[in-house]
Amino acid sequence: MSSRVVGLEVRNKANEAIATIEDIAFNENGIDGYILSIGGFFGIADRYVAVHSSSIALTYDRANNQWRATMDASAEQLKAAPEFKYPGNT
């Protein structure tokens, strides 16, 4: 269920929180990518970036009954990525 993925904190290999999955982008073949929220504080001044679906590893931790999202990137790399703007929002 997408409701289990949207809102997940994304961590890097150093186990640092670097983003939050804000949305999922679909195409005719399935999941095309993820929209990540970075740099904000409790939803204020968030900046969004889009990453390809293969950039995020989603795993399920049965012992803790929760999903985990990891990415091989740093917070600085995400901050340098082009900003994603939702269609109609300028």
Automatic annotation (TrEMBL):
Residues 3-72 form the PRC-barrel domain. It comes from the Bacteria. The lineage of its organism: Bacteria, Pseudomonadati, Pseudomonadota, Alphaproteobacteria, Hyphomicrobiales. This is PRC-barrel domain-containing protein. It comes from Bradyrhizobium retamae. Pfam families: PRC.
